[in-house]
């Protein structure tokens, strides 16, 4: 597993593959609110709905995913920041 620092340092333009979108464009656009970014609440709803449909831990949330990712990375030798 590559550590995040290594992955970021290898990509000089992290958002280069955005099909010519301006830098001010949201990385994840809202479908119902054209041109606006998804809200934290909308992303959390998507995660919870996906967890429910997959039959996995219904306590899943964006906060839980962030901590799960950090724990996984640390467990594979990446240093915490």
Q: Alpha-carbon distance between the termini?
A: 17 Å
Helix content: 40-55%
What percentage of amino acids are in beta strands? under 5%
Principal-axis shape equals flat
Rg calculated over all Cα atoms: 16 Å
**What's the β-strand tally?**
0
Give the H and E element order.
Answer: HHH
Structural class: mainly alpha
Mean pLDDT across all amino acids: 78
Briefly, what is this?
By secondary structure, this protein is mainly α.
Task: Write up this protein.
By secondary structure, the protein is mainly α. The chain has one domain (24-81). The protein has three helices and no strands. The longest helix is centred in the middle third of the chain and has 15 residues, at 40-54.
Itemize the secondary structure elements and their pairings.
Blueprint: H1 4-10, H2 40-54, H3 62-75
Q: What are the main properties of this structure?
A:
single chain, 81 residues, mainly alpha, 3 helices, 0% strand
